[in-house]
Design brief:
7-stranded mixed beta sheet, NADP (chains A, B, C, D), oxidoreductase (chains A, B, C, D), Rossmann fold, 6-stranded parallel beta sheet, alpha/beta, 11 helices, homotetramer, amino-acid biosynthesis (chains A, B, C, D)
């Protein structure tokens, strides 16, 4: 049994971790921290939980919080895990950070996109970037993993094989993506109220969404990224465009994807454009791509559940690797459909 | 390994069975039948499936279809399993019927509510009624189980303990329930088109919905039942009203529910009125109840996922019992939330 | 031109009034007050507004606020219009109160259901109850109208003709209703967040919703009322149950409705159970009813848009009557469908 | 009174025309044709209709169908109005074609994108392209108007002023758009079933959607267009990308839009990215644009209601122009919000 702590247990990502850990054979949710809901029953915070887990109280983080813990999931607002990662790693614990603090290799990128200097730049190199399909060996041997962002996960899974195969010009990349509302987190605001979102499709964060930096880093690309909010709770679809590096066979984009993901348990290559619903509630991803000879462009699409492959699911997949477990333990590739 | 066949594998209930069996430790989906989609890959029929299961072809039912099979799930239109249940039972197989054919004890009830005589009345007594919390022993020893309907499951779980405790007058029962659209099945029609349902709340089947008969049978009650279609995919909430049998302590209804479901892994008694979303994608159920001294009435509420506890989930729970497995194998009580 | 002021212009009801007044031939929105958004452009508060109206600034209420005004719509939290109604009426202005302050005839009812004594009980008798189909003459001659609540409007329209015709026992009334989320108002809270509501159907306010009092008053009935929140923005469906006063012809309930609403421009009697979507965005209402000889009960259904016939639309209909205008001016009976 | 006929009165566009004509001061819906629903009451076909209009029967088209008619709206599947436009124009009637038959100037384009030769190429030049903001004079003097497609309307309104101002390279245009499900029409199919679409965001028609041709024609551009289906009933958002023709002031894109649409009653230029919901149920459009100096690209966004400004609303706007009426008669710019 791997004794697991969650920091930020009361948010949506915390809740999804708890739902998944309730069925995980090896990871045991042992200490659950969340300052704003400290003292409340988990069942009051996450109404989906039941049984004994619902009766556990959320704790306030304290000095002895991590005694006896093997693994820490940190699902905190950006800037917070920078403050505590050093102490966690010094204790020899494994750390999976679901926030944005350790995704960017270059502290200058963090400063530029997040508007403040990084508080623990020396620790960055100790984190593997948490997409197992692309960094499996690094994750296996890492003490710490930085979760890929939700938009970057959908984008990078769809685009990286084509960059690697030399099929597209990475400096021409446009990423147009839509997210379900859970991607905006649990904080209550008018922009994510039901009445605002129902029947609404809109872009936000024009030109300057922070996930741009991750995409550029992992793809070695220049990216113009436009996120949209769609009237659904879960799911991200990234529709990505790039200039073809050269004329190619119409099957080349799909072939590159199939080669990259052969044997992967969670990434599926589809002939048809995927729906976010195919992977809702799961750790699955679906990608496809097309070459448009008429305009000389390639279109690449990736669909995930932002809370699954885009957050809690993928980080359990990483934790499984870090502890030498079956990579698929506690995870499903099948979406809850319809 | 229990070799399992599904008849009607291409509908929504079939898809949910497949999703759940993909993670079940003991039940192995071995033969998958579905006439209208025979010959197609499962992945084309159920886009949520992935990996090897997606590549399996749907078969047309044939004489040797059940050779080597231990367990049959029949998810067929009503009237169909009457025709084949006899042969299945004669072969000694266990049978879980997800349709309506063997729910009603009295063939005359079937004839009255379904408009045609029952074709195999002698078999009815061999079926246990598939709500484990109320008929666990019968299910354990049965060769065949008839799935409770989705509306009856939500209703009976909320109401039965109060009938048994003598708190309500069963002849005064009104059941007002709302269902997600997946309850209407996969057949394509204008009434379940997105444009029709989005933003719509409406009643249907006024006075004569067939699930009334099941509720009356299991509760020993007279029931006026009004189903509604809500703009959501999954979930049933039954809001039930009855005259109080006598003045009672305000806590009496909740106490009766807590006593009935103490220790149950899938049924939770809640102080607050439950949302269908708390159990979406799971086999969980949540019930609550109130006594209104002002009007002398009791209100009882039950929430389930119509495809989970209302169909595929509950029938896997029954199959687990029939084969002496852990009753919770392959099932979650935690909803996919948000 | 009737110079019109709106108090509470920044809420959803205020926005709907503005949308409708933008096309009204006679009512001119002249002064727009809203304390929390004072100083902001209307277009920033209500993104649906465009053109000149979007550039008008929301004002803070002041002593001279109503100089030159003919008509006041007050869309304020309950308790607020009690404080100012006296001054408005003394100035000789006409007043339409969209809140709950003047709906209940008996100040003791207000105290019981709203938990505080009424601050202006002497004014109550000067308000007509704002359902034109039932109180047209009183509204025509009134200086002030109290808007019927949204749930009461849907309920009373469906039930009142059957009470009047002696078809049902008013002391047996059960009202089970579902509302879209805009009925909860514009205040931001987790219970009305998109992620909470999408895929959710749940009851709330068990036994003690304040609209019960209005229903009982207008119907001369004892009412057990259970409201539900449905995953849609607009719309209310009330499904109402009562014991039949006596056996009756199956057509009797529909006949009573047809007789009551013959020639009404906004209330339609339907053979089929109505959807909220049929009247979404409009001032229409649809009602139907059934007698169930088997259980001796009558089911009555009413559908409206809670912001239309349930609030802003119906109150413009009342204002039209108060000023001797065409009762339908500026209003549509046709829903925005699909 | 302008006596108006609708061909294809039973589809969604037909229903929206009827809803709008019910409140139009000058256009009178006189003859309503729809072969598949011929003989049915309009109220049975369009449940949003009420009053006298609901009692009108849908007619089968016949030889004398257009006697006494002044104006024809044709909302037919593509290929159908080619067969009858000649006869309608010869009678001297005005014709507004809501289908795709007369949008493309070059019959070869029609053949290429629609897969069959045009049956009436000589008539094409008699049709004005139906976006009043760009072709007002031509529409005023035309006998016939071809409705712009829904995606092209949203796209062209957002992009054309920047092409005209020389700010973007038209050969680099990428259009990524999302539509509500009503854009797929009323035919019933699994892809537009509620259970398929709810919680789903997906692309379709990769590389070859027919609206591409219209965008290229009107913008003088090369366009790669990817449409998506969003889980909402109404609305289109087009997010468009092009290479900047040259470095520019950050305000230049918005300035070009403001200059183009100054004084327009239905097109609004917004600083913030628009939501489809702002214009739902209306004839409004909202556009915005940004220059991204970092990547050298321009992003342009346009939001409309696909049934409003994208179909029925815009075509009533055109008809108003064709008959010399107030261009805004019977139309609202304000969306039904929330």
């Amino acid at each position: 049994m791997i004794r697991t702590a969650i920091l930020g247990a009361s948010g949506y990502v915390g809740g999804e971790l708890l739902r998944l850990l309730a069925r995980h054979p090896d990871l045991r949710p042992t200490r659950l921290f969340g300052d704003s809901k400290a003292g409340q029953r988990l069942g009051a915070v996450h109404p989906q939980l039941s049984g004994a887990m619902a009766e556990v109280a959320v704790e306030r983080f304290s000095d002895d919080a991590l005694d006896g813990i093997d693994l820490v999931f940190a699902a905190l607002p950006h800037g917070e895990s920078q403050k505590i990662a050093g102490a966690i790693l010094e204790r020899g614990l494994k750390l999976v950070d679901l926030g944005a603090d350790f995704r960017l290799r270059d502290p200058a990128d963090y400063a530029r996109w997040y508007g403040e200097p990084h508080a623990a730049p020396a620790l960055i190199e100790r984190f593997a970037y948490g997409i197992p399909e692309l960094h499996r060996d690094a994750i296996r041997s890492a003490q710490a993993v930085a979760a890929a962002g939700c938009y970057p996960t959908a984008t990078i899974l769809a685009v990286k094989p084509l960059v690697d195969a030399g099929l597209i010009d990475p400096d021409s990349l446009i990423v147009d993506a839509a997210s379900g509302v859970s991607g905006a987190g649990r904080a209550v605001k008018e922009g994510t109220a039901f009445n605002t979102v129902d029947g609404s499709f809109a872009a936000y964060g024009l030109l300057n969404h922070r996930h741009t930096a991750e995409m550029e880093q992992e793809l070695g690309a220049t990216v113009l990224f436009t996120p949209h909010l769609a009237p659904m709770t879960r799911g991200i679809l990234a529709t990505c465009y790039a200039a073809a590096a050269k004329p190619m066979d119409p099957d080349a984009p799909l072939a590159a994807l199939r080669q990259a993901y052969a044997g992967e348990p969670f990434v599926r290559v589809s002939d048809d454009p995927p729906s976010t619903k195919w992977v809702s509630g799961s750790n699955g991803a679906v990608v496809t791509a097309r070459y448009d000879a008429r305009t000389g462009r390639v279109v690449m699409l990736g669909a995930i559940d932002n809370l699954g492959k885009g957050a809690a699911g993928q980080m359990i997949q990483c934790a499984n690797l870090m502890f030498g477990l079956d990579e698929t333990a506690g995870l499903a590739a099948e979406g809850v459909y319809p």
